[in-house]
Hints:
Elements: E1 2-5, E2 12-15, E3 19-21, E4 24-26, H1 32-37, E5 46-53, E6 57-63, E7 70-76, E8 78-85, E9 96-102, E10 108-111, E11 115-121, E12 125-132, E13 141-143, H2 164-167, H3 172-175
Antiparallel strand pairs: 1-2, 2-10, 3-4, 5-12, 6-11, 6-13, 7-10, 7-12, 8-9, 8-11
Amino acid sequence: MEIRATALPDVKLIIPQLFEDERGFFFEAWHAERFREAGLPDRFLQLNHSRSKRNALRGLHFQVTHPQGKLVRVLSGSILDVAVDLRPGSPDYASWSSVELNDQNRHQLYLPHGFAHGFYVLSRQAEVEYLTTDIYDPAGERSLLWNDPAIGIVWPTTTPRLSPKDSSAPRLEELASELEVFRLDR
């Protein structure tokens, strides 16, 4: 597998080596030793799976307790996957990066904890699966407003399908005190 930095150097694009023949294909979606050698986590504690319809936007989510690194991949369909650096003191604080993940390119995205994560469904439907480095803690989950002008994410729509929680999420400036748990320059 090939591991590349994205526009946010700590967010990594993982491109698996694909073996195809007349029967279909095979690839290693995760390999502990290869991840460890690349400085990525070699241990995950939870596997999540979602199905979403076209124009759905999930996110931008993060956890302040039990912060999670995430390894995201698409089983079917296509998404625009987005990461936002929420680590005060980071040179990339409040910057974002996006990549298209789909069932054709089979790319994956790794986001360390301290990043908000969200995705927008480009296809009729998409099934997304992601491993996390820590367990989900409902009390520690937070959302960041998907279209916060302080971040300026360029989404392929201005009218996505949102959950009530995501449509009323706070802006970055309202979350500043909670983000101190991710501070890099202590």
